[in-house]
Amino acid sequence: MSAEWFELGQRLHAATSGRLVPRLRHAPLLAGAKPVAVRATEQGGVVRVSAAAPGGQPGSGQGLDGLALLAGLGVSLDEPEPATLVTDDPGTLRTLLGLARTVAVGCAADAVAGHIAWWADRADFPGGGAVADVVAGCRARWISGQAPKAEYGAALWRDRLGVGDASVAGVLDVYAQATAGDPLRFLSDLATDDSFSYDMARKAHCDGWDWRRPDQTSRAACGLRGRCDAADLYAAALLSDPLWRARSVHAGSVVVGRIAVDAPATQRVVPVACARLDARLRAGAEVLWWLGAPGEVPDADYTGTVGAGAVVGGQLVLDVKTPFNRPTLKAGDLVTLMPAPPSVHRQHHGQMVYRKLQYSRRSWLTSGTAPAVRRRSVPLDVLLAGASDD
Amino acid sequence: MRTIPGTGSPIAPSGPVAAPEARVAPAPALCPHPSLATGWTASAIMDDPTTAGVLHSAWSGDSLVAPAPPGSGKTRLVVLLAASLAERAKLRVGIAAQTRDQAVELARRLGALGHPGILAWSTAHPTPALPAPARCGKGVQVRFPSSGGGVIVSTTARWLVSDPSRLACDVMIVDEAWQATYADLGALGAFAGQVVCVGDPGQIDPVVTGQVSRWQGSPTAPNLPAPDALLAAHGEAISVVRLRHTWRLGPQTTALIQPVFYPDLPFTSRRPDEFVKGDDGDRLPEIVAHRVRVAGGPGDPALVGACADLARGLLGRAMVTPEGSRSVAADDLAVVTAHVGQAAAVRALLADLPGVLVGTANQLQGLERAAVVALHPLAGYRDVSGFGTDLGRACVMLSRHRSHLALVVDSASRDVLSGSEPTAAAGAHMRLLEALDMG
Asked: Which of B183, B216, B246 represents a domain boundary (last residue)?
């Protein structure tokens, strides 16, 4: 079975039962401390913003009045805590950013524009708390009995979740249901990054940095590094969910197998006969493994490293190098392996070192200046050998 | 951008970028002793105007980009250049490889050349065996000689956790540079003020897991292949030396892939004549397309079954090379697919032939075999996806073979392409399939 067939099964079950079928046991979005629901549309060059905060009445405004509305709801770099953009319209952020770009540097609305720019930057960080697309969140959490394309519309989710309010205030009701329950592992780490990033954005705003200018090479490089780390962490967050692991078995990223031979605790390398051939775990990959099925929440899990892999008798056998603290394993024991999650501490350290490399020497490669060439004299034989003959 | 055209008759490279299990092209080995004529271990770089031009440019202080087609001797160039700059110009040279296997291969070749290069290696991995005088170094053992030149080889990832105040060098050579991001090249710039990027512009772009919409459309986006963005940002100040010959691909393959995948890098075949014989004893064409009717998507058993059958059909056939004639063995063969699931299915069907290399285009990048079976990346699709039309992936799949490529093509792919939204990638695939039909 492929992951697509697995999802089709879930979809058919949802259609016949008339209920949403969960893709995840945990919430894929973290409930923000200061959510602000926003919809923004642009027509004839005029941007209309409607917005609401929990417990308040929805408001609306055009152009700079729209930005003033957001400022009144706490969307401003002058605020010590960031607001979470909650929206059910994928075009809203782009429209808001276009509006923010019209704001002159240093004017009253600049702090609101800066906050919107921060949203636009953080929207690229999956699982973060800065921007919550509730439609994407619902798609990540549930599967409906409708065709996949229909799940891109907010109306379907309002209907399925029993939210009658189609105004911007209703977006907060959908958000509340999408964030209900325990969040996925690592989402709090991603939210911590948001807070750090917000503090940096506030400081940059105070220092007069203009977010409208294109990223300098070093800033873009660090931004890419942060995005990749966040994407890797979010992928690990998904794999921490038992339901997602059950799906991932059919994509090869979670591997189910059986211990091939008895392995006392002192034996370092344990051969695992895999149920499928399409394992994505390569030699050298660090893995997390436990005794039991992928959908189980293990009492104890262990780290390891995939050694060699070979097809023996039509079955993939992975040699897993295990630590000393594992129990004795018996041939036939069911075992689940998946990629070890990245270390958050190691990610932060790596980003710090990367930032130093990008900024410390201010090389021409990162500063955007012309290369400073230090000419060396070249011997005549090299000069002649390299001379073009056409 | 300053261009130094490559001309003349290059000497044969000693092989492509290769993981330890890779088969190398039949070509002279690097000279293990200092050249009597010019007195340094890597003087072979002077035998060809193109590689000598690279040395001249790098020695004089230029940062440069060297685009090279598949099988053109990139690894050999990197090794000779690094050793030459260290020994004759007394420069400290860093080499950034993109994978551990590539770093080991570079260090091995430095050792075989007689150069005392150091491979910076992690304590977490088994130490690879290197021919003396090359050696492995770990932690603070890794440093340049206190006087004179030297070469340190490591992966880009390892350089990026190193201390530039301890490992500062004069020149940083980036091997397989089209697999490195511009962001990482910038970080490598903390180690050296001069960079030399060597690589194949037709290969799969760097793998980036994060979202990059913020820089969409920017020619200097951090996720782009390092040489492309470097030329976009600093083109006027960067020298370009193109390698113009392939020693792996034959003339038919070269004529097929050069116009489609390398429109800005004209190159010709210098491969010695070699071929696989057909049933009638005649030579098989370099590339033969095998059309398969598909109804079950990319995972259709008909596709992977055809791949396995073709691989079995090649096994035992006579193969003629400059060294003589012999039968095609399992380890002469590779099967390359687009998807992990396809590779797994082929591997299962060929489980009795463990010597056959089976993998995805990403896994087989940089490797070569005498004969290859490739499963066209669009096979099974009824709409055109970005993944299926990615030109780098197709280029890798069509350029792993020396003697023969059996290409499994979905008989509906041309119709699918002609009915799709016209894009540059879809157009390139269409030209490719048309050329295969004519061939």
From this structure: B246
